[in-house]
Amino acid sequence: MRGKDPLVSCGSCGRSVPRSKAVQDNRKVSYSTELRTGDDVSFTDFRKVYYCISCAKHRKIFEKKKRQAMSKYNR
Fold first, then answer.
1. Interior CA angle at 7 toward 6 and 13, to 5°?
2. Dihedral (C-alpha) 61, 63, 67, 69: value to the nearest 10 degrees?
3. Average pLDDT value over all residues in the chain
4. 26, 47 in Cβ contact below 8 A?
5. Separation in Å, CA 21 to CA 8, 29, 31, 65
6. Average of pLDDT values for 12-39?
7. Which of 23, 47, 48, 50 could bridge to 8 as Cys pair (CB 3.0-4.6 Å)?
8. At 10, is the pLDDT very low, low, confident or very high (cuts 50, 70, 90)?
């Protein structure tokens, strides 16, 4: 079934990458009205962002994922 993998675009460079080879990262996105009054509304959301291998290495996402995996197994 690997030949039928859907393509996702890299969040940094826009390259099309198969989803199985892409690196997934959750980004925190916050929206706010910034009225500076009592009616100020803010909303925080997590968005899945896919990166190609080269952009993930450049942004050091691999090191972060590696540290998370190591701390998960060392508990």
1. 160
2. 70
3. 85
4. yes
5. 10, 24, 31, 15
6. 87
7. 50
8. very high
17 forms beta bridges with: 8
pLDDT of res. 2: 63
Phi-psi category of residue 60: left, alpha or beta, with phi > 0 → left and psi -120 to 50 → alpha: left
Which residue type is seen at 26?
A: N
What's the pTM?
0.69
Predicted local distance difference test score (pLDDT) of residue 62: 75
CA angle 60/65/71 to nearest 5° reads: 130
Domain boundaries, the chain: 2-73
* Phi and psi based region of residue 5 (left: phi greater than 0; alpha: psi -120 to 50; beta: remaining): beta
